[in-house]
Each structure stands twice: as C-alpha cells, then as structure tokens.
Design a protein that fits this description.
The chain is α+β, with helices and mostly antiparallel strands and 447 residues long. The chain has twelve helices and eleven strands. The radius of gyration is 33 Å and the shape is extended.
C-alpha cells in the first residue's frame, strides 16, 4: 500500500491511497464468501455456487461494493498513519480504480489539524469581580430551606384564598356537551398558580369546602386544543379540601433540625460561607473563560469547515444520548420542536467552532509552557473522583487502564493550561456593558 498527500487551502487535503491488486483479490474472495449464502444459482445448493458462476450470472462487479468497503476498512487507518498527518474529520471517499488484477485506488478528502500561532495569552485583561454576600442573599437561602421543610396544614374554617392548596372536582361542558379532558376528581391545585386558563382560578377564591358552584370561562384563541379555541365553557365545581403551607419558624430549633449547628447565628454564618464559596468558584470559572476567550481572539488559526462539521456531529450525538436517557428519541425531539438534523447542526456550529478554538489554543499553550500533569496533581484529582463515587482510591485506580490514565492526565494538563492563562491574566475594572456576555459559564477543561 502507498499513500500520497495533496494539501489544499484551509487545511484540507486529499490522500490518494493505492492498495495492491492482491489486497483487492483477497477482499473480493472475502466478499464472495460473505454474500454467497444469499445468492441463488440454479443447480447449486444455496451458498455452494462458485464465485465465477455467480459473476457470470450477475456481472463481474457483483462483489465490488462489499470488496471496496473491506479494502477501505483495512487500509484507511494505516494510510492516515503513513501520511504523517493529523486528520480531524471523516473522509469523503472517491474510488478511482477498482478492477481485479489491478491495484485498488481511492482518494480521501479530509480536514487536517490546523496549526496555531499564539498571540498574547499572558497578561490578557479580564473584568475584575468583587465578591460579597448580602443579607438578602442569606435570607433567600434560609427561605428556600424553610420551603423544603414546610408542612401542609388542613383549613376548614374559612373559604378559599389565593395560594391555598386545594383538591377540586370539576366537570366542564360547552353548550351542555362534555369535552375530553374537562373532568377530574380531587384535582390538586395551587390557587393563583395560573395552572388553569385565565379567569378560572379567580372564581374559586371565596368558595367554601363542599360548596358546589359554576365557573364560566372562555378558552383562549391560541389554546392548544383546536376544538376548544375561543369557546365559552361552564365548569361545575366543588372544593373538597383546603390546605396551607406552614413554614417553620426561623430560630435555633430550625437550625438544629436542618444543620449540624446549635444556633441560628452559627447556621447563618455557614450559609454565608457556602454562598461565598459558590461565588468564588463562579468567579474563577468566569475569569478562566474570559481569559481563554481573549487568548483565542489573539491567536491565529485556519479551521476547516469539515472540522466544525465533525465537532457539531459529535455534539448532536451526545445530545441524542442525553435525551435518550430521559426516554425521548432524537426523532421525537425534532418532531416536537419542528427542527431537523440540518437546523440542529447549524445551531450547534458556533459552539462547535468555539470548542475547537479553545481546545487548540489550550494545547498550544500547553506545549509553549511545557505544562504536564504531575503525579501529585493526578493524585489530587483521583482523590476527588474517589470521594465523588464513594470508592477507595486504590480500587478506582485499579479499574483504570493505561489508556484511561493517559486520557485523564491529558485532560488535567488542558485544565492546567486554562488555569495558567487565568493566573497570568490582569484583572481590570470594566463597565458592565463592556464585559463579555457571550462567554459560556463552563469549565474550560470541558471544551
């Protein structure tokens, strides 16, 4: 096998691969052995007809397609390795010669990994972030915890009020005719939540438990059910129960119930510290992303469209897997959203380009600064993983193969490059409108 490389503009290239005539002959024989069982030849038992007999009946090219696929599978990766190029896209294959007794020749159009010329990446300017924790923020967290620990209390001495949790019977009709979905018993409703069509919940306020009453409403013109749009309806209703949410008092007893602290003041200090730590982590991520974005802006690289297509395809596949875990297929998602694969790919391309740029710049900084993952840093990350998965450190490392360890060290080195750029950035005061609003709030190592 031989391979030649013709480089094109924008980091595209055409590999011309020549496989030997013997490789094609072997592939034709393998294709015949694979396909003969499904070919019927009069006078022969299924799968027993000689190859030449099949070719006489169906033509000499009957096995060419399968044979070509076999040769491609057996030679393409070797050809890429032999070319010495770093290919970053799927190949566009064109077979230029396929004839038994002659070499098998094909071309593969591919994108090559772009070279990166770094600009300024040390000392880039980023917006300074001031971290403070207000009393309002602390109170908001305390209120969330009170909500989580609230209990429902029955009310039977007054009519329905807004924000009450009620159980409701209703039976709807239009011109005296019931309609699908218009009837329910003991339906749980938070009055004023806007769960029902406009005007419905307002008419429940003031009604007592056991009282039967009518609710008169008109369905909106943009209602999802075509047969109900703009129609006037009557719902016969009855309130079966009323409950209110009772929040616990904000005192020492509450602190003891929801935390390890004995007093409310101690608990408040802990809440404030956690808010500060969260803000510090957010500020660190923001600084890393802003610094990296500046480094990318200052770098030069010619990224081929095929590379962006490849990254967007991977992102779409990852998205398909995620929604698949939630029980929704990508076809169902596209049907519900009115999207198709091309539209989704087009939406993902800007983010795909950004991920590629980030990755290439981080790799270039890694090389320029000779950044490597030390054994100490690797052990730190393993400790974090072991705690996250509630595993013993030794057991976790024993499950990792050599390739997994190498991949993890590469990812850590990438994160270290992002940290290097951020650590060397200069924080400056910037008006809010000048701050970058297109920076994704995600860890650079994930790009």
């Amino acid at each position: 096998m031989s391979v030649t490389v013709e480089k094109k503009e924008h980091n595209m290239a055409v590999l011309t691969v020549t496989a030997s005539a013997q490789e094609l002959t072997q592939a034709l024989n393998d294709a015949w052995k694979k396909d003969r069982k499904r070919i019927n030849i009069p006078g022969f038992r299924r799968g027993k007809a000689p190859r030449k007999m099949i070719e006489q009946m169906y033509g000499k090219g009957v096995f060419f397609e399968d044979a070509a696929n076999l040769v491609l599978q057996r030679t393409y990766d070797k050809a890429v390795e032999e070319s010495g190029e770093t290919v970053v896209s799927r190949p566009k294959i064109d077979i230029t010669q396929i004839e038994e007794g002659k070499p098998f020749i094909y071309t593969a159009e591919v994108a090559l990994k772009p070279a990166v010329t770094l600009g300024q990446y040390k000392g880039v300017e980023v917006a300074k972030t001031e971290i403070s924790v207000s009393d309002e923020e602390i109170q908001k967290e305390l209120d969330k915890e009170r909500e989580r620990n609230a209990r429902m209390v029955d009310v039977d001495d007054r009519p329905v009020q807004k924000d009450d949790h009620i159980k409701l019977d209703f039976d709807g009709s239009i011109d005296g005719v019931p309609f699908d979905g218009g009837k329910a018993e003991n339906y749980e409703l938070v009055v004023g939540s806007g769960s029902f069509i406009p005007g419905f919940e307002d008419q429940i306020v003031g009604k007592n438990i056991g009282e039967e009453f009518d609710v008169n409403v008109t369905f909106p013109e943009d209602y999802q059910a075509e047969n109900l749009k703009g129609k006037a309806a009557v719902f016969k209703c009855k309130v079966n129960s009323i409950q209110v949410k009772e929040l616990p008092a904000l005192d020492d007893d509450f602190a003891q119930d929801v935390s390890e602290f004995d007093t409310l003041e101690e608990y408040k200090k802990d809440v404030a510290q956690k808010i500060r730590e969260r803000k510090e982590n957010e500020a660190k991520a923001k600084k890393q992303n802003e610094a990296l974005a500046e480094a990318v802006k200052n770098a030069e690289m010619d990224i081929p469209e095929a590379m962006v297509e490849e990254q967007a395809t991977r992102m779409l596949d990852e998205f398909s897997q995620r929604i698949g875990q939630q029980g929704l297929s990508i076809d169902q998602y596209m049907q519900f959203t009115g999207m198709d694969r091309k539209k989704m790919m087009d939406q993902m391309k800007p983010e795909a380009l950004k991920r590629i740029q980030n990755s290439l710049v981080l790799e270039a900084v890694q090389k320029a600064e000779k950044i490597e993952c030390s054994d100490e840093r690797f052990d730190e990350e393993i400790d974090k993983l072991a705690k996250a998965y509630n595993m013993e450190k030794d057991k976790l490392t024993s499950l990792m193969g050599e390739e997994s360890v190498k991949t993890m060290k590469d990812e850590i080195a990438t994160q270290m490059a992002a940290e290097f750029i951020a650590d060397n950035a200069v924080e400056v005061e910037k008006p809010a409108e000048e701050e970058r609003k297109d920076i994704p709030q995600e860890q650079p190592a994930d790009v």
